[in-house]
Amino acid sequence: KTRALLSRQVDQAVAAAGAIPENIDPPSLVLVGNDPVTCTFEATPGTWTGATTLDYTWYVNGVLSPGKTGLTAVFNNGVGNIVVRETATNAAGSDYEDSMPVPTPTEEPT
Fold this sequence. Notes:
By secondary structure, the protein is mainly beta. It has one helix and ten strands, in the order αββββββββββ. Strands 5, 6, 8, 9 and 10 form a five-stranded antiparallel beta sheet that branches. Strands 2-3-7 form a three-stranded antiparallel beta sheet, with no helix packed on it. It is elongated and about 50 Å long.
């Protein structure tokens, strides 16, 4: 009985807080700058229901790239595939969605 009561209390607390954000469209990435050494990517936010904040983290070949947290990020050319993770948060919790991977350029711009 105690377990059932606790479970019901948790369910009621979650219902009172509302639903966690739900993604409608994922974020997207575009290459906006390229020089002989680096390239700059810009994220376009996704569409969410119920989100009060959006936060961004960037990944190279599936590995977190420390210190990159905004809508734009600079990477060295040729490092691999870039993904931005958008995390939506509200009082009930959070959820995330990743962009499609975009490769970094491997050659100097012409």
